[in-house]
Design a protein that fits this description.
With 399 residues, the protein is of the alpha+beta class. The chain has 10 helices and 11 strands. The chain folds into 2 domains: 218 residues, no CATH class; 132 residues, Cytochrome Bc1 Complex, Chain D, domain 2 (Orthogonal Bundle). The strands form 5 sheets. The chain has a 3-stranded antiparallel β-sheet with strand order 5-7-6, with no helix packed on it. Strands 1-3 form a two-stranded antiparallel ribbon. Strands 2-4 form a two-stranded antiparallel sheet.
Length: 399
């Protein structure tokens, strides 16, 4: 009888403990509060590859023994993209050495990226005398697979180099040479040996394979079969990372879900969205795009809402850093996607670091930094009533 009593008491105590722990556990975040996670509809095999890429991106931390450096910027992919969100001033990269479309004149001195950290016994890089430079804050990663699948024809259809419609917006694509390992789609458009690129602050990178290979090499000092050049010595060395890992990370980036808009039924949000269009912020930040065919069914022929046209725009002398990539001019920047904007503080220490280099501490400040082709929309925003401005900001924070 005593044993039965003790057993019953033990079971009850266990149940109470489980209930107590359950009550103290944090609630599972809603899907619209997270930037990471796969797109819906992946097959079992695709989901397994996504998880393998997730591990390589977020859990693998490189050391001297696994190929780090000898000079580098970061020790892992995830350290610059916490929760797949935007970076901070502490993870901002420095690029240097190119002032126009004739190419980088400082490649022999470590360009295009500054490796500002070094293993013991090595010396970190410094910006060479006479080199122009710019600082690039790491972007959010989500939804990149959709952006990769926008056709060149669609991008060209949004370009308006001579501002034929008279709205003050005259976006152009970034035409750039691409490495030989990149797979060129059959519908890709070429011009004088160059191709339309779409990733990076200047839109100078062709696809997510090139972006991933460059990041491992330039950010972490890791070679692969795609790029065997050691950033410290300049010599070609054996690959330090397998093709499988590269492919898994690329697939992970391709199949990260698109950010989910919040508060869509809020009247201020819908009003702010209408005002956003009325003052022609949508002239550059196009709300809706469509993907082309993809062997990943979850990405194929999908309508999505990134708020970008993937084109270069002149944003005025205030944002002229004297540095460029590809065919972009120093005053031109690729329109950043706005989706996920409202969740940026989650990875930026509770605050905003916006624009290409994180110089804007709020959405309002980012708007005020728009010059050039963005001047008319900025002035139109400033002419709004105070409550209307707040509605626009509320809409942007819902993305």
């Amino acid at each position: 009888m005593k044993k039965a009593y003790l057993l019953t008491a033990g079971i009850i105590a266990g149940i109470l403990m489980i209930q107590a722990c359950t009550k103290t556990q944090p609630a599972i975040p809603a899907d619209d509060e997270l930037l990471d996670g796969p797109v819906d509809g992946l097959s079992y095999a695709a989901n397994a590859q996504f998880l393998a890429g997730d591990k390589a991106f977020n859990a693998d931390v490189f050391t001297r023994q696994t190929g780090l450096g000898s000079i580098f910027v970061a020790t892992s992919c995830g350290s610059c993209h916490a929760g797949d969100g935007k970076g901070t001033p502490f993870t901002t990269l420095t690029r240097f050495g190119q002032t126009d479309s004739t190419g980088n004149q400082f490649l022999h001195l470590g360009g295009p990226q500054l490796q500002n950290r070094a293993l013991p016994g090595y010396t970190a890089e410094e910006i060479p005398a006479g080199a122009s430079f710019s600082k690039f804050t790491p972007p959010a990663n989500t939804g990149l697979g959709y952006i990769e699948l926008v056709s060149d024809a669609t991008i060209l259809s949004m370009a308006d180099p001579n501002d034929a419609n008279g709205d003050g917006v005259s976006g152009v694509p970034n035409w750039n040479f691409i490495p030989g390992y990149v797979h060129i789609p059959v519908n890709a458009v070429t011009q004088n040996g160059k191709y339309i690129c779409r990733f990076g602050k200047k839109g100078s990178t062709f696809d997510l394979l090139q972006q991933t290979v460059n990041a491992y090499n330039q950010d972490i000092g890791i070679t692969s079969s795609f790029n065997t050049k050691d950033v410290y010595s300049g010599s070609n060395i054996d690959p330090e990372l397998s093709d499988l890992t590269i492919r898994n990370v690329v697939f992970y980036l391709q199949t990260l879900k698109a950010p989910v808009q919040r508060s869509q039924n809020d009247l201020d949000v819908s009003t702010g969205e209408n005002l956003f269009s009325l003052i022609n912020c949508s002239g550059c930040h196009r709300p809706q795009l469509v993907t082309g065919y993809s062997p990943v069914e979850a990405l194929s022929n999908k309508t999505f809402f990134p708020y970008t046209d993937l084109l270069l725009h002149d944003l005025g002398s205030g944002l002229d850093d004297g540095y460029t990539e590809g065919s972009a001019e120093t005053i031109e920047w690729r329109t950043p996607a706005l989706w996920g904007l409202g969740l940026s503080p989650n990875s930026q220490g509770g605050q905003y670091f916006l624009m290409h280099d994180g110089r804007a501490g709020s959405i309002e400040e980012a708007i005020q930094l728009h010059g050039g082709e963005g001047m008319q929309s900025k002035n139109a925003f400033n002419a709004l009533q105070e409550n209307e401005k707040l509605q626009v900001i509320r809409f942007l924070k819902s993305l």
